[in-house]
Amino acid sequence: MSARYSAFSPSRIAAMNARQWYVLRSSWPRILEIIYWPAISMITWGFAQMWVGQESGGTFTVAASTLLGGVILWDVLVRGSLGFSITFLEEMWSKNIGNLMMSPLTPLEYVLSLASMSLIRLFIGLVPVTLMAIWLFGFNIWSLGLPLVAFFLNLIVLGWSASLVVSGVVLRHGLGAEGMAWIAVFVLMPFSAIFYPVSVLPEPAQYVAFALPSSYVFEGMRALLIDGVFRADLMLWAAGLNLAYGAIAVLVYLRVLESARTAGTLLSHND
After folding, report:
1. Residue among 251, 248, 253 nearest 211 (CA)
2. pTM above 0.70?
3. What is the Cα 217 distance to its own chain's centre?
């Protein structure tokens, strides 16, 4: 490892976050978009479930609360992943990525700056949406308490792992691969058991679901909302898978970064 990778500097991470925050706050459409899509998703599904409940003679049932919980937690995964990827793509679009990769900024510092910025973007969208869910439907995701932390951490780490691999692919192959930032997480959606249990899936699809940390999180959410039981075993499975996938994602990113440095594609992407 070269000498410039030997020292870790929180100040360089803070500097990157300051730059990224200036870009975000200077454009109100960017902030509006962060809130808009999760709000539309939550409102649409919430009213759909309210209508189904009314037609079936009930009101806002437990099943409806699991659906809204699924919508909000799925958005944690999606927005966490997109927040990471879009912050990275901002540097690609501004043709600044080559300058950053040749600066004293280490790969770890850059990844941590992307992760911390994704958290900022996530909470900008998450807090208003959860407050709207309380106001419109009486559903309070924060009432889940400490288990919500386990759900959140497992989903956000999965999103970061997927985005880190995508960032590596874009570094190596250029902006022609940027569409992967939008599809990387959504390809997991049918197998993540967001709105239905894993048992509903065909048997081959269940094997895929059991390999995804997200499916354990959503099964755990339903167990907590329906049965009032926190399934620590499911969270441990999710955490174990996340550790494995996170390690693989870091290795892939570092390997691709070195390949891009050797091939000179970091600078060619800035042309």
Report:
1. 248
2. yes
3. 13
Answer yes or no: are the C-beta atoms of 13 and 112 closer than 8 Å. Answer: yes
Q: Of 163, 153, 28, whose CA–CA distance to 86 is shortest?
A: 163
Instruction: Give CA–CA dist 13/15, Å, rounded.
Output: 5
Q: How far is CA 190 from the centre of its chain?
A: 16
Residue 81 near residue 185, CB atoms below 8 Å: yes
Domain boundaries, the chain: 3-268
**CA–CA separation, 270 vs 91, rounded Å?**
10
- Which residues make Cβ contacts (< 8 Å) with residue 122, sequence separation at least 6? 76, 79, 80, 83, 156
Question: What would the two tokens of residue 182 be?
Answer: 């939008």
CA 176 from centre of chain: 22
- Residue range 178-192: mean pLDDT, rounded: 87
CA–CA distance, 1 with 161 (Å, rounded to integer): 23
d(CA 82, CA 213): 18
Buried b (16+ CB within 10 A) or exposed e, 102-121: eeebbeebbbbbbbbbbbeb
Across 34-48, 95-109, 225-239, the highest mean pLDDT is recorded for: 225-239
